[in-house]
Structures are given as structure tokens and as C-alpha cells.
Amino acid sequence: MRRLALHWKILIGMVLGIFFGYVMRELAWQSVVVDWIKPFGTIFINMLKMIAVPLVAVSLIVGLADLKDIAKLSKLGGRTILLYLFTTACAVSLGLLLANIIKPGLFINEASRQRLLEGFAGEASEKIKLAEATKEQGPLQPLMDLVPDNFFAAMTNNGSLLQVIFFVILLGIGLILVDESKSKPVVNFFKGLNAVILKVIDIIMVFSPFGVFALMAALIVEIPDFSTLAALGVYGTSVLFGLALLVFLFYPTLLFLFARIKPARFFRAISPAQLLAFSTSSSAATLPVTMERVTEHLGVDDEVSSFVLPLGATINMDGTALYQAIAALFIAQAMLPEALGLETQLMIILTTVLASIGTAAVPSAGIVMLVIVLGQAGIPEAGLALIFAIDRPLDMCRTVVNVTSDATVSAIVAKSVGLLHEPENKDVDLM
Ligand code: ASP
Q1: Protein fold of 6-416
Q2: Which DSSP letter does residue 156 get?
Q3: Does position 229 have pLDDT exceeding 70, yes or no?
Q4: Where are the domains of the chain?
């Protein structure tokens, strides 16, 4: 009998989880889900996060050592950063275009506006407080944050992926420069370890349908109140429409033009990562799966994917950028329409690109950085309360875009340096 492909299993887990959560909510048995089902979702996310830092470190060492030449590294790095900036700028511009055409802020009536502002004022001020720390930093703080004072401390902190990347790049350059008799045993060791880690990811993914079931069930029983969703319908639909354009039109076009990859092949390869991004709302937790799928199923050589994907997970967030642009305009339209001159919109482009780079790859990080975008553009930060009610579902969708964009850029960069192969397509099924 033909085995069901992984993305179908995950999808079935998701749908069953939503259904189960809904039934439990109707029966008012939320606590059963929170106490007995949700922990399995958390365990699943923890397993993914547990393997992320070792995977990034080891695969990057192997990838860099294979490059064998530092000029190739700078070529790769330059193209990657340029492409990341390009896709993010396109996403922000699309967001602004949609928000200017649809004007979602004009669809919210006074009663809902007051209800949302009052109902979510607490949550909004919490996020504003979180953003304060970032605002007080000096201009070169992000550069300083890149260099760890202790590599092992960086390794033990999931939020320090860029520091790990920095140290490992130095290590990789060292490996390229030393005599081969010295580097060979080191590289061989890491190559073996890399293969083992990829296998561990396969094992973790066996549990993915169950993990996703638990995450979705918990999400449904914990949604505060379905009725608030209606007032934000036009805003939510604008964000979803923009995200859909990116996933189904923008990236497939780029892939076809610059990497000669047909959409069906691309989606078949990365859909498990997309589904996982949707269920976990975290591109960092999804990273191990993105790396495995892109390397083994899309055919991107790990010399490229080991470098491009971890970097992308931390700095390239097109979905977040598009969302921040639409959300900023939505809040301005609803609360302070006179703030919407061309100058403000240009400011939003600039700050959104930077804010999306600074956004951590974890759930709800996008809304914290939105505070900074609002502040720079002179839009009232308290307006954050307006969009809170539907932030989680939008977070899930923008995370899918963040991951899709990383995979797209890795394939284009790989093609440009001749490192895109026919995929091995080994659907490892342990179940
Ligand atoms: N959850 C998103 C991510 O991990 C970040 C965001 O909140 O936009 O990619």
C-alpha cells in the first residue's frame, strides 16, 4: 500500500485538532485540552527547538568547509542578503499598496473601535513595554549583539542564533584556511554528526501529526471570543490576501524565472515545513524541517541551505513585513487618518524593513516590533489594541510566508552558483 505523504498526515492532524478543539469548547471541557492535550504540542515544539541550534551549527560548519574557498562564501553571502532585502521590500510595498487601495481602517465602526481599544488595552500596553527596551538601544546595538562574548552561552540560548552563526562562520573560515590534513578529521566528524541530526529530525517528524493536532486543539479552546473576529474582517482579509499573493504568485514566479523550479515541485518539497510554520507560529521552531525539506526534497546543496536558511529564519520575514505595513496603515486609518502623508508611508517602508529584520522568529514577535514602526511613523501605539483579537491566526499565516521566502531565496541562490541539484526525494517514512 502507498504510504500517505507527510504533508497529508500533518494536514489531517490539523483538521482533526481544530474539530476536536471546537467540540471540547462547545462542551465547555477546555481544561481537559489544556491539561491533557496541549502539553503534547509543547513537547513537540520543544523537540524541534532542541534540535535547531545543533543542526544550524553542525550543518553550517559542514557547508562552509565544503565551500573550500572564501571568495565563494562572500559571493554567497552578498547574494543572499541582497535577495532577502529585495523580497522584504517587495512585501512591504505590496502591503502598503493593498492597504491604500482597500483602506481596511475605514471599515471598522465606532462601537467596535471602542470595544477593541478598551478590551485589549492591557495586552497592547504589555507589548508596548516589551518594545521599550529595543527603542532605548543605540544605533549599533544590533551589530554588537552579533558577536557573542561566550560561544557556549550563545549555544544555550535559542534567541542567539545569529551569534551562533557568527562564531561558526569564523570556525568555517578557519577550517578552509588550515592544512587539509588538520581540517579533514574535524570536517568528517561534523559530516557524520550532520547525518545523524538529519535522521533525528525524521524521527521527530514522525510525531508531527500528533503534535500539530495538540497545538490546533489548544489554540481553538484558547481563542478568547469568536465575535471580535467579525469587526476585523476586512483588515484580516487584506493581510491574508497579501500573504496569499506572496505565496502563490510572487515566490513561484521568482522560482520559475531564476531557478527553473515549477510550483508543484516546490510546494511538494516544502509543504510539510509550511504546515508546521502554520501550526507553531515560529520560523525558528520550523527551521530544522525547512532545512531538511529544502536540502533533501528541493535539491538545494547543503553548502547553500546551511547558510541561507538559518540566516533567513532570523532576518528575513516577508510575511511579518507585509503584515506590519498593513497593520500600521489600518491603525492610522482608524485612529488618525491625517497622519497618512507620503512621507509617513515612506517612513513605514524603511522602518518595516528594519523592524522585520529585527523581529525574533517566535510567536507574536511581529506585533512587538510593530510598536516601533508605529512610533516612528507617528501613529498612536495604543492602536495596537485594535488588532490584537486576530493577531494569532495572522501570525500563523505570516510565519508560513516567512518560511516560504527563505526556501525560495535558498533555491535561487543555489541555482546562481550551480548548487541546485535534482532532489533525492527520499520520503523517509518511519511510520
Ligand atoms: N511568528 C513569526 C515567525 O516566527 C514572527 C512574527 O511574529 O511575525 O516567523
Answers
A1: Proton glutamate symport protein (1.10.3860)
A2: T
A3: no
A4: 6-416
